[in-house]
Specification:
Layout (H helix, E strand, L loop, with lengths): L5 E6 L2 E6 L1 H8 L8 H12 L10 H15 L15 E5 L4 H17 L4 E5 L2 H5 L8 E4 L2 E5 L5 H11 L8
Helix pairs in contact: 1-3, 2-3, 4-6
């Protein structure tokens, strides 16, 4: 799958980057044309949960959002999301090294344990990273605030930062 195959979906007011949705939609277009929405949702969740973090508590919400984007990708009629993005936005800044990958896993693990939905992006483009004025990697940015640079903090600390940033409770189920 292409590295650029990331589609933004809205789940409970949070903009979430999903890897592989366009490829999955195109692969399913013909064989799944006559299937019902529930079957398509289940298949999208099955295919995409391998490469994407989908909290169990929010599976139904993700299913609806994935189906909505699936329909958009295939040019089918779609109801727009009622929610507007405004929840947690988390970015891991770094070149894609082992420590960056570990940071991503720790963040996703913390979100999963907390049952919080958030947009999680791993930013590898140096021009984008420079905008944050960080001098080390990996760096962790939550809602635009740099909270860690040059190390992978333990999961408890990541959870604390997420809880502090989720003041509106928008990520809670």
């Amino acid at each position: 799958m292409a590295e650029q195959d990331i589609t933004q979906i809205v789940v409970r007011g949070n903009r979430i980057g999903i890897v592989g949705l366009k490829a999955a939609a195109e692969a399913m277009a013909g064989p799944w044309a006559g299937k019902g929405d529930d079957e398509i949702q289940a298949e999208l969740l099955r295919r995409l949960s391998e490469a994407n973090y989908i909290p169990r508590k929010l599976t139904e919400d993700y299913g609806r959002a994935l189906l909505r984007e699936y329909r958009k990708i295939l040019g089918m009629p779609v109801e727009e999301a009622e929610e507007t993005p405004g929840g947690l936005e988390i970015r891991i800044l770094g070149p894609g090294c082992a420590r960056c990958d570990l940071m991503t896993r720790e963040v996703m693990g913390a979100l999963s344990e907390m049952g919080v939905a958030a947009g999680v992006d791993h930013v590898t483009d140096i021009r984008e990273i420079v905008k944050y004025r960080v001098m080390g990697s990996p760096a962790l940015v939550i809602n635009g605030r740099v909270v860690s640079v040059g190390q992978v903090p333990d999961r408890a600390k990541i959870k604390k930062w997420i809880a502090e940033a989720d003041t509106k409770g928008t990520g809670q189920p």
